[in-house]
Amino acid sequence: MNQNQKKRILIIASAAGSLKSFRGDFIKDLTLEGYKVYAAAPGIEEYKETYKFLTDLNVTPLNLKLQRSGLNPIKDFKSIKALKKLIKENKIDLVFPYTIKPVVYGSIAANSLNVPVISLITGLGYTFSGVSKKAKVLQKFSQVLYRKALKTNNLIVFQNIDDYQLFLDKKIMTENQKYGIVSGSGINLDQYKFRKKSANGTNIEFVFVARLIREKGINLYIEAAKKLKSKYPQAKFHILGKSPQGSPSAIDNTILENENKKGTIIQHGWVNNVQEFLSDCHVFVLPTFYREGVPRSILEALSIGMPIITTNTPGCKETIIKNQNGILIEPRNLDSLIDALEFFINNSDKIEEMGINSRKYAEKRFDVNIINRQLISSIKDVLA
């Protein structure tokens, strides 16, 4: 019998779909190592594809009452209570939460039961990148919650060094606490096949893939497209993604509709076949100023073999090797973005070589097998 057979791991997510799309390979590798895996997320049974994926691996899906956003002390206390119940009933040996609420409430619940915790910090999002009064209040409150929750974690894993440094600077954790750094969530290189793509003249197709919120740089991308389209009418600016309902940062859909009608952009909305769109385009663009871990969309573009334009910010700058596979721009800087886009329009002969370098970099640094080996090694150390 595998020595890990009786060890039970609970993975906690705030979005059920991410258990397959972001953690699928990790969960699969845990089961191959002999661990009994449980996966908890709000409304998990409603995500049919994710639910089937988990049950096919003999992973136990668990429904979790958790409000993904906002702060409601009564509901949040109930979430902690529900997590304690799940941990006790399923005799969990280790809790592995990711994203802020699962990390905070999962850690508090597990710590109260003396169950080991490895928290994965997958970027800090709107709370730490927003500049509004509300964002600043949330940031202060989040720091208090993180500090309390992470105090007794066995290990805290970050996806970039900047987030670790910020946690030290804000005194959320101390230098004595154990931590690790991994290069994002990793990418399955077998699923995202490399394709060689060359370009001629100014017929360059750019593509933006993200939730359509201000912090992801969508407004900046559209403004750049407006300025460049009149000068280079053959260039195309694709947008994949949708505007999240209820988000104060969501782009006004009328802007998208108007610019789409004008031919400034090509708006595709939310699509399932992202890989096909990436394969058909030349250059990937993400001018984000969101506190990313390492953006999944960039990893997909790297794997396929696309040059990248992204910002010199935590989680994004790690994906670029200067002058080899893309261009780093300054966040919130329209001129910087226009210069980068124009570089590829006027230097289309660089696209194929940079795309090859992107794939090589993905193989060297962002292969999901490398990331998962690091995480599973940490789990073994904690449970030893």
What report would you give on this structure?
The protein has 384 residues and is α/β, with parallel strands linked by helices. The protein has two domains: 8-186 and 367-383, Glycogen Phosphorylase B (Rossmann fold), CATH 3.40.50; 205-366, Glycogen Phosphorylase B (Rossmann fold). Helices cover 43% and strands 16% of the residues. The chain contains 15 helices and 15 strands. Strand 9 (205-209), helix 9 (218-229) and strand 10 form a beta-alpha-beta unit. Helix 4 (73-89) crosses helix 5 and helix 9 (218-229) packs across helix 13 (334-346). The radius of gyration is 21 Å and the shape is globular. It starts with 7 loop residues before the first strand and ends with a helix. The mean pLDDT is 93.
Question: According to CATH, what is the class of the largest domain?
Answer: Alpha Beta
Rounded to the nearest angstrom, the radius of gyration is 21 Å
Mean residue pLDDT: 93
Q: Please give the alpha-carbon distance between the first and last residues.
A: 17 Å
Number of helices: 15
Question: Which second-level CATH architecture of the largest domain applies?
Answer: 3-Layer(aba) Sandwich
Strand arrangement in the largest pleated sheet = 11-10-9-12-14-15
Give the amount of beta strand, in percent.
Answer: 15-25%
- CATH superfamily membership of the largest domain, which one? Glycogen Phosphorylase B
